[in-house]
Amino acid sequence: MEKEIGHFHEASFVDQDGVVRTSKVPVVQELARQGLTHLPDWFKRVHPDGSKGSSVWSDELDPVPSIKVTRLRVGSNPGERAQELAKLAHGVKEWGLFLVMEHGIASHVLQDVMDVVKGFFGLPFEEKKASVGSYASVDNIGYGRNFVKEDQPLDWIDRLGMQAAPKGCDQGLNVWPKRPANFRPAVEKYVEEARKVLDELLQALAEALSLEQQTFSQYFDPIESEIKVRINYYPPCPRPDLALGITPHSDASALTLLMQFESGGGLQVYKKNKWVTVPWPQETLLLNIGDLLEIMSNGKFQSPWHRAITQMRAERFSVVLFYNPPSSAEIDPAKAGDKDEVVYKKINVGDYVKNYYKVNPTTNKEAITFARV
Ligand SMILES: O=C(O)CCC(=O)C(=O)O
Ligand SMILES: [Fe+2]
User: Fold this and answer.
1) Is any atom of ligand 1 closer than 6 Å to the C-beta of 266?
2) Ligand 1 in contact with 251 (CB < 6 A)?
3) What is the mean pLDDT of the segment spanning 286-302?
4) Ligand 1, closest atom to CA 267?
5) Is the pLDDT of residue 322 over 70?
6) What keywords would UniProt list here (predicted)?
7) How far apart are CA 311 and CA 313, in angstroms?
8) How far apart are the CA of 337 and the centre of ligand 2, in A?
């Protein structure tokens, strides 16, 4: 097997007993380059759909809402704004995600991100490795693979994870690629622009639930809030029926903002006992609710259980921003009135995230039970 594989990501991580361990997993991009016609055993799942039904397209469901950020702005037409807020509330309750339209991020900012990401993944493996540090911990910073436990099948993915905020908080790891030379400024520019949109959406999401506008945004801070950037690369896969790009999960974030390119059709959410391919036009931004916002909203919004599938002939990239309050923040679930039953308790963000990485990956939305009353 090793001969066939050729290149490996070497990851070190701290296991549940606090022991530092290293593991070696194949570089998926290098495997795909060999044009394999079979799937190596490491990636095989007996039934990717498992006991959870088969995948379907979403024809029978309400459409994923397309939300125009310009309409949510205070000062926009009040009738249109109320309509957009109602659409947001309904759509998020139905899907846990929505398409983000009219966000105001210039297309050249998005294009620059696509270019540097493709530039990085286009480098030979040794140059990619030399350009960044490796995985040092389980919270997905660095160039490498998706974290899975030892006895689990591997995901058909190579990833690159960085922390963009707070500034300078990269855990001492040299993980921003040095090549292409404009990688970091291009991604940071996007993060800066995206952050404005995320802040607007946090307020709109509170209003959509008829809560005070600051209900969610009060926990965020212009300096201390965290933004992790994760770049997912899914090369073409010889057996999409036997492998997954990312194992099912919900995000540990408050909000997750995604862009995708090269192809669409990879994101699925679990709905009505089936995996549904999210109808997500290729070059639109998409926002999904994370566990922390589910907790802040006392369960009114729910973080979707989602996964990524692979495709036989198409490669796909996604660039994902995870937006969180500072890890020292204590979030207190908002009650919508005296009769509102308390579902979640007050938790510390850092404790939540730490526990999330300890229990994940799991086969169900187990991490969030940490915050249940
Ligand atoms: O690639 C996608 O569409 C999903 C990525 C994702 O779920 C993640 O990185 O957490
Ligand atoms: Fe995710």
Assistant:
1) yes
2) yes
3) 98
4) 3
5) yes
6) Coiled coil, Dioxygenase, Iron, Metal-binding, Oxidoreductase
7) 6
8) 31
Atom 3 of ligand 1: nearest residue by CA position: 267
The residue nearest atom 8 of ligand 1, judged by CA position, is: 320
What is the distance between the alpha carbons of residues 343 and 362, in angstroms, rounded to a whole number? 22
Ligand 1 pocket check for 146: Cβ under 6 Å: no
Q: For residue 318, how far is its CA from the centre of ligand 1 (angstroms)?
A: 7
- Alpha carbon distance 183, 39 (integer Å): 32
- For ligand 1, the distance from its centroid to the CA atom of residue 120, given in whole angstroms, is 19
Token code pair at residue 315: 């490669």
Q: Which residues of 295-330 are buried (b: 16+ CB within 10 A; e: fewer)?
A: bbbbbbbbbbbbbbbbbeebbbbbbbbbbbbbbebe
pTM exceeds 0.90 for this model:
yes
Mutate to test the pocket of ligand 1, among 286, 303, 318 (most ligand atoms within 8 A of CB): 318
Residue 52 neighbours by CB under 8 Å, 6+ apart: 270, 273, 274, 275
pLDDT for the residue numbered 77: 94
Mutate to test the pocket of ligand 1, among 244, 268, 306, 311 (most ligand atoms within 8 A of CB): 306
Q: What would the 3-class secondary structure string for the chain be?
A: CHHHHCCEEEEEEECCCCCEEEEEEECHHHHHHCCCCCCCHHHCCCCCCCCCCCEECCCCCCCCCEEEHHHHCCCCCHHHHHHHHHHHHHHHHHHCEEEEECCCCCHHHHHHHHHHHHHHHCCCHHHHHHHCCECCCCCCCEEECCCCCCCCCCCCCEEEEEEEECCCCCCCCCCCCCCCCCHHHHHHHHHHHHHHHHHHHHHHHHHHCCCCCHHHHCCCCCCCCEEEEEEEEECCCCCCCCCCCEEEECCCCCEEEEEEECCCCCEEEEECCEEEECCCCCCCEEEEECHHHHHHCCCCCCCCCEEECCCCCCCEEEEEEEEECCCCCEECCCCCCCCCCCCECCEEHHHHHHHHHHHCCCCCCCHHHHHEC
Q: What pLDDT sits at residue 7?
A: 86
Residues 21, 136: Cα–Cα separation, whole Å: 10
Q: Mutate which of 117, 320, 321, 360 to test ligand 1's pocket (most atoms within 8 Å of Cβ)?
A: 320
